[in-house]
Fold these 2 entries.
Entry 1:
Amino acid sequence: MAVADTRPRKALDAVELDPRREPIVVVDDLHIVYRVYGAGGKGNAASAFSRVLRRKHRPTMTEVHAIKGLSFVAYRGEAVGIIGTNGSGKSTLLKAIAGLLPPHRGGVYTDGQPSLLGVNAALMKDLTGERNIVLGCLAMGMSPAETRAKYKEIVDFAGLKEGFIQYPMRTYSSGMGARLRFAIAAAKTHDVLLIDEALATGDAKFKVKSKRRIEELRKEAGAVFLVAHQLDVVKETCDRVIWIDEGRMHMDGDPEEVIAAYVETTGK
Ligand SMILES: Nc1ncnc2c1ncn2[C@@H]1O[C@H](COP(=O)(O)OP(=O)(O)OP(=O)(O)O)[C@@H](O)[C@H]1O
């Protein structure tokens, strides 16, 4: 899948390519800019009316430059951890790789279909866990027969308390929701699996289980990207870590080294 590239290629030239491995995600001088309308102005009816009278269609617009020229190549079989302080651009990068945010400049190229598994992944709160499994599997492109075949495996993996699978998801704790989301996403082999904080709320036993499943997914599929604030999860799960600071690449390499440098700099 290719996402708009509107400028001469330059930044990726600086990235070293490993000719022995197969690239699966290429991020080339990526810039992501959010447009925020109405920031700074009063968001009430009077100011909207005043805009109408002044024939100004839109409230003031400000831009947030969240990713500022990021370039790297991820290879088949890699598990890449993305770390950085709050607001550094981790979730934005995942969304851009998933194709959910258009690049302002530069591009993201993936070999195969990326799937984003986030804390806010679109499960329906008013539907039962059971219905969400079916909908989730169908939404991931599985056939009804495949969905039926995988159903029990998903329920077992999520390991919810007895009977909860028949309850609406709004009755689940955040940890239970995260477990079910992960279990649904992990039921399928993904070309590129993007995980945003989904493992944060699981307990220790579930983390071990998910780590094992991520390893399997890496073998079966393309690459796994993981955003997590818990550095131990990243260290245990990933074989490469990218540290983003204010939307820019700060460090990229061995998990132990990058995390040690991050802890030393940020004190986290
Ligand atoms: N929908 C949005 N509209 C405008 N600005 C946004 C939006 N989402 C994120 N931002 C801004 O983009 C920047 C990067 O945010 P992002 O959520 O990617 O950071 P993050 O590293 O994932 O943060 P955290 O660790 O807190 O989850 C921040 O300055 C944030 O305020």
Entry 2:
Amino acid sequence: MTKLRFTKMQALGNDFIVIDAMSQTVALSSDQIRQLSNRRLGIGCDQVLLAERPQRPDTDIRYRVFNADGGEVEHCGNGVRCLARFLHEKALLEQHELRVETRNGLTLVHLCDDGAIAVNMGPPVLEPERIPFRPTKQASEYALALEDKRIMIGAVSMGNPHAVLQVDDIDSAPIDTFGPLIMEHADFPQRVNVGFMQVISRDRIRLRVYERGAGETPACGTGACAAVVSGRLRGLLDARVKVNLPGGELMIYWDGGDTSVWMTGPALTVYEGEIRL
Ligand SMILES: N[C@@H](CCC[C@H](N)C(=O)O)C(=O)O
């Protein structure tokens, strides 16, 4: 039997089990991730995050992200803010600027004096083959065949893949039906996170996200970035946008082109413990 120390954290209700994999040996199978994430059989969370020693010399920490379904993925916007908070609270890293190694790149995180955490998420990836999305010419919107319907989506990678639908009202949007269908759509070979975006004004949207490997969550950081990028590309939004998610608010800034997307929001510790596996 293995004992594992963990910290339970949340960012706008998107919740995480954060594990220091530097001071303890951690080798979790997909089954164990599913068990930890299960809200009855384990601790319960949307994602498990591992803080590991960096492999790249130009970074301070490596973080790995596992969805509640056990699959490892590339990135997590709310998760990277929780990771930064965790490292500071544990005095594992003390600087206010952190260079975080992700599965496919480098993310810069800044702990602000007012308690918020700002993340430079890097430029969005829009080339379909890099999202990855079915081979096609890059566009701001694509038609997607969904059973007998044809819907319009934006497709963006923020390190992880996102489809963004514009809806009139997120309260009545078909999240539970369209969410799983689009997530598993054959045009997205790695599956996809699905955002439902309601544009309120050029600087405010409402958003719900059906996450790959976790289902609908109260908030999704990379989803908020992808929605603003998609809204900008469709000519609907300005550069600075307040994103209202069911769990709270994120500020997203994107100046277009190859510039980085910035995300600012909270991250909090809930409790700490030890679990037997
Ligand atoms: N909650 C996250 C995204 C977590 C990963 C995602 N479900 C995926 O599979 O890519 C966020 O805040 O960005």
